[in-house]
Amino acid sequence: MVNMLFSQYNFHKKWAKDTVRKYLNDKQKVLVIPFSFNNKIQNDGDWQKAYSKSGKYYQNIVQPFNDFGIKDENIDWLNYFADTKETTVEKLKNSDVIFFTGGLPDRMMDRLQKFDIIDEIERFHGIVIGVSAGALIQLADYHISPDDDYKYFSYNKGLNFINDFFIEVHYDESELQNRYIEKVLKEKTNCVYGITDKGGIIVDQGNVTLVGDTRKFTKEKVFG
Q1: Neighbours of 112 (CB within 10 A)
Q2: Quick check: helix, strand or coil at residue 33?
Q3: DSSP annotation of 205
Q4: pLDDT (tens digit, 9 = 90+) per residue, 169-195?
Q5: Where are the beta strands (DSSP E) in 176-223?
Q6: 0.85 cut: is pTM over it?
Q7: Where, by residue number, does the polypeptide cross the bilayer (predicted)?
């Protein structure tokens, strides 16, 4: 299995493209799982306005894959309001790549649980890519630092893919982020990666490759 963790939908840009192209090609089929949306999306109509071909977020999501030669017709979507566990399982079987969108990680995990598809996803043997929230949930345990969406720090359960480290997405060296990275190092792990908006991590069969501007923090070496 290969896991890719990014902060933004820009892993087709120069800082990442040469590394990512080793894994993506025009023969692959991608399944987008946009389950991280907020309360503004309440029904299928709202979902279509967000994720259909004319939707607000569609082009931003498919553009990186288009740049690696994957055409729109080879990119499928899970619709929270229209799909079922059965259709989801079928779509997973037909996919080489799973893509988790950014947004609210805890909401995404709740929706995956309600669909009862976590076991099926954890048995997936292809490539899993996630942006922001979609990166966080690939960790068996992850933390959320306070930001515009979350008032309070929290520890949360994700998918059982990665157990060796924690991540701070959208890392910008802020005092708040650094404080919570130190907290996580003290309480939970020996390693936290700060993934900037031009950074990423690829975990290939357990081997970790840092892409672009990604910082490594350990108990021995935190900041400076």
Answers
A1: 22
A2: strand
A3: T
A4: 999 999 999 999 999 999 999 999 999
A5: 191-204, 207-218
A6: yes
A7: none
CB within 8 A of 163, min separation 6: which ones?
139, 140, 141
Continuous H helices in the chain: 14-20, 44-51, 58-67, 85-93, 105-115, 118-122, 133-136, 175-187
Q: Do residues 133 and 104 make contact, with C-beta atoms less than 8 angstroms apart?
A: yes
Residue type, 178: N
Can you read off the two tokens belonging to residue 41? 């999306």
CATH topology (fold) of 2-218: Rossmann fold (3.40.50)
Length of the chain measured in residues: 224
**Three-state secondary-structure class, residue 59:** helix
Per-residue model confidence as pLDDT tens digits over 58-98? 999 999 999 999 999 999 999 999 999 999 999 999 999 99
C-alpha distances in Å from residue 222, one per residue of 98, 173, 183, 194: 33, 12, 11, 11
- In this structure, the dihedral spanned by the alpha carbons of residues 121, 126, 131 and 136, taken in order and rounded to 10 degrees, is 50
Amino acid identity of residue 67, one-letter, is D
All structural domains of the chain with their residue ranges: 2-218
On whether the CB atoms of residues 158 and 144 are closer than 8 A, the answer is: no
Q: Which two tokens stand for residue 206?
A: 């357990």
Q: How many C-beta neighbours within 10 Å does residue 130 have?
A: 29
Cα gap 88→33, rounded to integer Å:
10
